[in-house]
């Protein structure tokens, strides 16, 4: 188990009549430039501690995690601990200009949070510009000591991180797109644990997953890609899904995993096939006209005892537009909903929100065509502030944001119909939606067909949510709620809104602070497909935001 300059400190607190152990996990993260060769070309990339993917954070449920992040590059940097609940620790959440100002070159910041009520696989990544292309890694949260998994104990565990790779400087890619107003160039390849495998025009050995016959492996699969939803498949093998986004699920067997950017999936793999080498294929999903990197990443599963140069057992990848495969996988996901791990779904709601999501075109005098691509929620394209929203909220600084984000679309229309005649211009603003502490919230995320429909993986900071319903076309507020699953819906932090369809989620606003909701396709986040919830304090200090740490970066 690699700890990458990590140290563990044991605190023992005396609480009569029992002793309670609380471990503090200490990590030092240095943002540095690292020369890296892929696709037969070398470039310098920002990394953590020179690693791509970055170091894994290991902890147990209930542990306190301290990460000292020191910025030794010329980019401003923040890191987000994706999926960590951050209960009353919003100052450590990480999104630039939402919960903190960036860490400037030469400066450092201590991220300090406790892993409360969570166990499983999450990820961490940069949360400013497109730096998360190479600044990302895994978070592995083991159950409390002595607490077993609610599934057969694996013999070994393996982390598999999926990502994208550009030959060009990724920051140059997005800067050029911002300057021209055009969509950014797509990536050149996908990677498995940092390796592309063989691609046309460049040979590469790729990643190898070594296994022994008869043993069972827990695969911790992470999609750290910027812009691509992906299929993951191992030739000749089924795997059993047991967890997504660090929440246990009812187990089910599948030969293909569908995983969006920011999502994680834990699955059991039993090495029960003939000794040999088996292809692992990671391929993109895109069921609309939007350009996508269609290069399949190649890796191999290799049994102990396989002869050198053995030909691999091959497999077929799902079609790039295999919508039924994505829908089937998502429909199988159910919360474990056991006595120990119940699904506490809000049965009634205090806030019933309907958010239309899509892209548009706004004027841009300096852009090539006099216009630029934008994205919006309820026709609001979010403008990033220059003061962090959480600071503005905590110190009651006026003029940074307004709390009048619309609960419904400003105009009702056939969201998934033929909208070629629609006005493509959006409104702009730094607008948030305010929630009372502990209120129950339902959000219906409605896809639209303006310009082009598309699958949107949406991520909510500071909370898990329950996916109570989904469908194609327009959400029907009279009939669709009758079909909601309020018993064992999957619980997660990131969910894909189907192309020209909708997703309904519910959560309890039990975490005071300012929390980002955004599409996890980085191109859309850049274009403004984001908003924030402001959750007010409750009663007393245990339901309130604590003061910011003394080393919180300033803008």
UniProtKB/TrEMBL annotation:
It catalyses: 4 hydroquinone + O2 = 4 benzosemiquinone + 2 H2O. Its EC number is 1.10.3.2. It holds the Pfam family Cu-oxidase. GO terms for cellular component: apoplast. InterPro entries: Cu-oxidase-like_N, Cu-oxidase_2nd, Cu-oxidase_C, Cu-oxidase_fam, Cu_oxidase_CS, Cu_oxidase_Cu_BS, Cupredoxin, CuRO_1_LCC. Residues 34-145, 157-305, 404-538 form the Plastocyanin-like domain. Keywords: Apoplast, Copper, Glycoprotein, Lignin degradation, Metal-binding, Oxidoreductase, Repeat, Secreted. PROSITE patterns: MULTICOPPER_OXIDASE1 (PS00079), MULTICOPPER_OXIDASE2 (PS00080). One of its GO terms (molecular function) is copper ion binding. This is Laccase. It comes from Populus euphratica. The lineage of its organism: Eukaryota, Viridiplantae, Streptophyta, Embryophyta, Tracheophyta.
